[in-house]
Amino acid sequence: MDTTRLIIVAVGGQGNLLASKVLGEAALISNIPVRMSEIHGMAQRGGVVESAVVFGNAKSSIISDGEADVLMGFEPSETLRAINKCNSNTVVITNLSCLPPFTVALGKSVYPDLNKLQDLIRSKTKHLIAFNAADLAQRAGNILSVNIVLLGALIQTGILPLSTDSVKEAIKTKTKKTFVESNLKAFEIGFAVAKEFG
């Protein structure tokens, strides 16, 4: 089986780890070999959280620079920061809703211009799917479902060896019962939006 390498980057509290667990569960449901690893950089203080998910017959969950088939970012500047994991064939999916680091509020750094950020990502990768996932999560009835909106977009690309049904099943088993309905709606919304990017 071919290997597919996915990097997920987020700010602590955005649900990166839940998204990884849903994908891992969907892989198990589908009998697809999967390896996962996580890096938590001061996650509880709004620091970066990075997950690597490798599908297929890989010996390691480590994704070196230039090896990612897909990069999914929950926060645009974190997506840009992880661009070194990409190559000219990588597909990038990013949320455009910003969570500027405290250094921006203190005036010690400047948040990147979103248009320039997207242009830079496009120049280094194969395809960019970029939209405001926070707005779509609210439309689904739960602002916390940004992660599931992005999962919908990711599955729509067809890059991962996972079916829509297996991911929906994993959403049902891995998320709290209270949020299952809004998460399934969020997944559908993200899936539909990604279609518009061709």
Poorly predicted ranges = none
- Kindly state the percentage of residues in helix: 40-55%
Distance between the ends: 26 Å
Radius of gyration: 16 Å
Task: Write down the CATH topology.
Answer: Pyruvate-ferredoxin Oxidoreductase, domain 3
CATH homologous superfamily title: Pyruvate-ferredoxin oxidoreductase, PFOR, domain III
Q: For the largest beta sheet, what order do the strands appear in spatially?
A: 2-3-1-4-5-6
The CATH architecture can be given as 3-Layer(aba) Sandwich
How much of the residues is beta strand, in percent? 15-25%
CATH class descriptor:
Alpha Beta
What's the domain count? 1
Taken in chain order, the helices and strands follow as EHEEEHEHHEHHHH
Q: Structural class of the helix and strand makeup?
A: alpha/beta
Number of strands: 6
- Largest sheet properties: 6 strands, mixed
Question: Count of helices?
Answer: 8
Give a short overview:
With 198 residues, the protein is of the alpha/beta class. The protein has one domain: Pyruvate-ferredoxin oxidoreductase, PFOR, domain III (Pyruvate-ferredoxin Oxidoreductase, domain 3), CATH 3.40.920.
Structure commentary:
The chain contains 8 helices and 6 strands; from the N terminus they run βαβββαβααβαααα. It is an alpha/beta fold and 198 residues long. It has one domain: Pyruvate-ferredoxin oxidoreductase, PFOR, domain III (Pyruvate-ferredoxin Oxidoreductase, domain 3). The chain has a 6-stranded mixed β-sheet with strand order 2-3-1-4-5-6, with helices on both faces. The longest helix has 19 residues. The chain is globular, with a radius of gyration of 16 Å.
